[in-house]
Amino acid sequence: MPDTVHDSPEVTAVRSEARAWFDEHWDPDLSLGDWWERLAESGWGFPTWSPEWYGRGLSSRLAAVVAEERKRAGAFGPPSGIGVMMAGPTIVAHGTDEQRKRFLPNMVSGKEVWCQLFSEPGSGSDLASLQTRAVRDGDEWVVNGQKVWTSGAQFSKWGILIARTNPDVRKHKGITYFVIDMDQPGIEVRPLKEMTGGATFNEVFFTDARVPDVNVLGEVGEGWGVAVTTLAHERNSLGAGGMGVMGGGEIIGRPDLSRRVGDLGNASSGSGEIAGMAAAFGAGGGSMIKMLPQLFGKGADPVVRQDVARIYTLLEIARFTGLRAQAAAARGERPGPEVSTGKLMASTIVRTLRDAGLRIEGPHGMLHGSDAPLGGMLQFLALFSPAVSIAGGTDEVQRNIIGVRVLGLPGEPRPDKELPFRELKVGTQTG
Ligand SMILES: Cc1cc2nc3c(=O)[nH]c(=O)nc-3n(C[C@H](O)[C@H](O)[C@H](O)COP(=O)(O)OP(=O)(O)OC[C@H]3O[C@@H](n4cnc5c(N)ncnc54)[C@H](O)[C@@H]3O)c2cc1C
Predict the structure, then answer these.
(1) Which of 30, 31, 43, 225 has the CB geometry, 3.0–4.6 Å to 56, for a possible disulfide?
(2) Residue 44 forms part of a structural domain
(3) Can you tell me which atom of ligand 1 is nearest the CA of 123?
């Protein structure tokens, strides 16, 4: 809760400016699109981003104050999803001013949805072994290959794509990073059915798809370095801290908003996994775990109390970790390898929430959908929980990153590191 009595002068100033703005501009009768546009123009949607690019350059502490004031006014948060979580910070860090001006406005206002075209059938953890090819043709590139697990591709206008542009150099070289228009005949999106019942991620096939040279982000052949920026932001935002600062969680428990979010909100959030993460880390997870013991008369059970206290503590630590990392990103700092700890924490929180929640629900935990308590939110989370340990890099990969890049332990042997990509027998490479 805001502590207006003990606020510093700086906090007081931001609080009163934000309060005045939200009081004046939040209107529950606005469409979500109109609201997001207002938020984007004002800089209050992403207050830690730089003022030049749709923010206010505020610290994480002050951004938390803005979020308090937004919630106090009952206003919905900014769009979330791959655009603002990953593509935006990458474009700010590596793009030209022309690219920033072209792509950011419709991203921050939620008008255009983005997807991430990185993983391939043979290249997930070993992403640098990717085989999708891009070949230059005048002032365009021609793309052929296949991506997989592409969240939200069916809703997306733009994709951040990494493709091999030079197979004669070692695998981490010769990769180029593109922004590709998804709306073209050379791209076919095929949804994949998930065990949650949804179909939010996809296979994406490229057959002579086209991308103009002006959409190369960074230098040709240097896309791996650009991709590492995206991956760091991905780990950070999918990590335990990330969703705490996203708007997605606020949909849960707000039927008035969920109804109005409709397609725009689902599309902008990009996917069911955002909803799943939001259920765990946004307002959903925190309020769910507070509600459940009372609902099932188990508030006096010492084991339940311990579980609840543990989850609540983890969520609070995660929230502040996320805000700090978001502010660092806004200062143009790429999240470091230490964000892998937050990603691992996310896996722990989701599993703990799932296990404790289902234990509290008892036999009701076996119900599904609208028959289940809280509309089946916990059951959805239980089915979704394995994804958290995989998406954005598996738990094993995060541990490797922490071991090698944070703790300075020896790395895995990498005999393929210096060989030209063409000589490797990787994934589904046939020759
Ligand atoms: C919900 C969800 C959404 C996703 N969305 C997207 C998206 O939008 N765009 C996108 O590009 N990708 C997306 N992905 C893909 C995701 O990034 C990959 O699934 C992930 O990187 C793992 O790759 P893989 O599935 O190929 O598994 P593999 O790399 O084949 O790994 C298989 C197993 O081997 C282990 N392993 C692999 N290498 C090592 C190692 N060196 N040391 C120890 N263990 C190892 C892994 O931990 C894992 O247990 C999504 C995945 C999920 C689950």
Answers:
(1) 43
(2) yes
(3) 26
Q: How confident is the model at residue 251 (pLDDT cuts 50, 70, 90)?
A: very low
Report which protein residue has its CA nearest ligand 1's atom 3: 391
Residue 334 has pLDDT above 60, yes or no: yes
Half-sphere exposure of 200 (CA within 13 A, CB side): 23
Separation CA 229–CA 245 (nearest Å): 19
| 28, amino acid identity | P
β partners of residue 147: 204
**Atom number of ligand 1 nearest to Cα 117:** 11
User: What backbone torsions phi and psi does residue 4 show, to the nearest 5 degrees?
Assistant: -65, -25
Q: Cα(31) to centroid of ligand 1, in Å?
A: 37
Whether 24 is covered by a domain: the verdict is: yes
- Segment of 112-126, 308-322, 344-358 carrying the highest mean pLDDT: 112-126
Give a yes or no: residue 66 inside a domain: yes
Tokens encoding 365:
């935990």
Which tokens in the block code for residue 332?
């143009």
CATH number for the domain that contains residue 44: 1.10.540.10
Ligand 1 is surrounded, with C-beta below 6 A, by: 115-116, 118-119, 124-125, 149-151, 201, 273, 387, 390-394, 396-397, 400, 412
- Residues 271 and 151: beta-carbon distance below 8 Å: yes
Q: Which domain holds residue 31?
A: 1-78
Contacts of 189 (CB under 8 A, 6+ apart): 150, 153, 154, 182, 202, 203, 204
Using most ligand atoms within 8 A of CB, pick from 394, 396, 400 the residue to mutate for ligand 1: 394
- Show Cβ contacts of residue 116 under 8 Å, excluding neighbours closer than 6 positions: 82, 86, 87, 150, 151, 159, 160, 230, 234
pLDDT tens-place string over residues 56-77: 988 877 888 998 999 899 999 8
Please pick, among 222, 234, 250, 273, the residue that the annotation labels catalytic.
234
The reported pLDDT for the residue numbered 427 is 54
Residue 47 lies in a domain: yes
What total of structural domains would you count in the chain? 1
**In which element (H, E) is residue 154 found?**
none
Report the separation in Å between the CA atom of 120 and the middle of ligand 1, taken as the mean of its atom positions.
10
User: What is the mean predicted confidence (pLDDT) over 30-52?
Assistant: 91
Nearest to 155 by CA among 101, 246, 54, 79: 79
Contact status, residue 421 vs residue 167, Cβ threshold 8 Å: yes
Active site residue 338: no
